[in-house]
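Q: What does the assembly look like in three dimensions?
Context provided by user:
Components: two
Sequences:
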Amino acid sequence: MILDDYLDRLRAGLKRLPAGERDAVVEEVRHHLQDEAADLHKNETGLSHMDALRRAIDNFGPAEEVAAGYDEASGEVRRPDGEVLRVTKAVGRGAGRAAVGVGRGVGTVLKWSLIGVLALTGIAAVVAVAALFFAGDVADTFQDDIREAIPRPLYDYERSWSGTTEAHSSTTTDSFDLREGTKEFHISFDVRADTGCARVILLDPGGATRYDSDTVCGEATAGRTLVFSTPGQWRIQYTYTAFTGSVEVGAWYFQEA
Amino acid sequence: MGFDLERLERDMGTGLMQLLVLATVRRHGPIHGYALIKAMDAATGGRGWWKEGTVYPLLSRLEKQGVLRSHWGGSGPGARRKLYELTGNGRRVVDAAADRWGSLRDAVTSVLEEP
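A: Here is the predicted structure of the complete assembly.
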């Protein structure tokens, strides 16, 4: 009963989520509380099932606070009076575009700008400690480290196909731009073939081949991480022949202080 | 206005929590939330500062940001669990952030230990 009461309050606090997502959250939390209660009951002599469940719920936190955490996960901040402010996504989108330059698709830019905000938040939290205790040059040094520490996305490609009915065949070319003044960028390639073949070729702004995975076929892998610095449009050619497996290509750069 | 030590601790914890979660998923994934929390407790020697209920919204946010992916796994009645693992982007982010965190940690430590 106390578990159902808790989950009912959680569900009520999640009403802004789509129904399917809300149900998934409640199910996930139910499993957690049941698992923890079972462990507590097993490991603590004399602790009843009911007391174990109460302890698990107490450890987890008030349902209303947990639900508020999902509002933040969706880019909303709930004020104590209940008003919801939508802030993070719009700010992140603008900051991401300023940092990244030309990308491919709003979805990719938004995703990487949120990752950048995530990394910035984590590292900036530590810098806040130093800035509070020390002034001047020391804090400036840490801020330079922070700027250099954040990987800024340039390009993101991730595809996979599994099962013989999904075997994929195509040849496509994608591209990204490296701005003038960027010192260098890193690019990583990861090709994992289960069946069929795949080939990935990287061409620099002059059209020269800078990386060629060669044809990767059936239960084989290929991967490299490389560093380049030529500004302009870089192109990546993907060739698939009855391919199942996965291909991931990601490029990023670190901004100089 | 006095110094808000609780807020400082909260800000520090929030930022580092994300790195800790991603690093733990990288080591143990695919992994469900309860096992993840237990793994983090074990890795930190029980010195964790988080409330368990803050981990699941964080997992949701990381999934929406493309560094984690999830699927429902397990078999048999009552065994279904939501399992998390890093995406390719997630692996790159964790590697880059962990490397830079090491440098930052050493820098802060050296200043704090100055006579």
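Follow-up: The radius of gyration of chain A is 24 Å.
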